[in-house]
Amino acid sequence: MKKVLVLLLAAIVLAGCAGKGKTAEQHGKGISVEMAGSPTIKHITVVQYVNGREIVGESVINADGSALSNGENVWFDVPLSKKDKLEIALEYSEKNDGTNPRTTRRVDISEARAWVTLKLNEENQLEFVNAK
Question: What predicted TM-score, i.e. pTM, was given to this entire model?
């Protein structure tokens, strides 16, 4: 019962906001992803795996419907687990509504306590950059 309550609370907390431009390090919290992959990606969703359980987080699209640019930083204002095993993956789509998404491999960020910066590389896979 305790685990269900924790997961429910985490899902509620994850319904935050996302912003573009600054990195998670500059914000001092959350997750940021530098876009270096396909220039046709229009929709991304950060997915957290806490002790192996999937928690879907925030999604980001450009307001004008354009693709996310290479070199652009996308920041997700989501809390990081302080004690549990935490992995991150991205779902990404070439459609603004997020249909037909693909998913990256998971990246273990269990050591991060405040923020983490990742990069979506040319092969559309996540790479760890740095964390605190």
Answer: 0.81
